[in-house]
Amino acid sequence: MSQTDFFTYYRSVGKTPVGETLPVGRDYDFVIKKCDDNESIAIPPGALITAAYWGNPKKYSQGKDVTKKVIMYARKKGFKQIFGNEEWFGDPWFGVRKTLQIRFAIPRKVAVVPKPAVVAKPAVVAKPAVVAKPVVQPRVVQTATVVSSAPTYPTKPVVAQATYPAQPSYPRPQVQAYPRPQVQAYPRPQVQAYPAQPRPAYPQQQAYPRPQVQAYPAQPRPAYPQQAYPRPQVQAYPAQPVYPRPQVVQHVYPTQPTFTHSPQVVMAARAAATRTVIIQQPAPQTVVYQQPAAYPRRTVMYRRF
Q1: Residue 146 pLDDT
Q2: Structurally, what CATH architecture does the domain formed by 6-12+25-107 represent?
């Protein structure tokens, strides 16, 4: 994060924000208040707006100076809170977090120092009268000196105002009024009207005959001889022989014997029953193949290189 504030940054690059004018003769405390996007800053009572910034708080080059807009919202429209959003100040740099920073100048309160109380000076004690001392035993009478405990303040020096001699009053020079020269009115010149000149009649343009385009006789189209090429004969393949469809012989099973005999007789009867299948073989046929058609031999011309 940047170590300096936005006001110092803009002043270092030569773009010092111009805010409200500070009255001369008073001391001010400069405070910078900040808020994130979609938040607000309350304007302190009596504070003056000296600068405002809207943009990236970590890099002041990705922001802009919005001092004039903040002053317009606070003074002309009378807003007590300034909201930081893109609807008011736009989007100076896309894709970064933005904050609103306002630099206020708050006047310092003048502390009234009470004047020290005037301490009454103690009354001066009269010195006792000096009694004549005997010559033999002279005595010295000590007098009490009262010291005031009140602090002594230096008196304010009186500055004598310099008096300048009165300036002599000079008479105001009178401006001589010169007579206004009279402008001679010259008669307006009359424009001579020239007679209208008749327009000469030009001879009519000679009509030239239209050139006739020579019609050329239609040339008969020569009849080119059409050479008839023989149609190639398609080779006829011989018909495939038709084989007879084999007949399916159904299996004939003997009737089931009854279990009137003993099991040995039944097993012997089952062993005697056999399955008979009759397959009919087709008779041999003779296949005759046709001879291929004879094509006319084309003459092949060879080019000698």
Answers
A1: 46
A2: Sandwich (2.60)
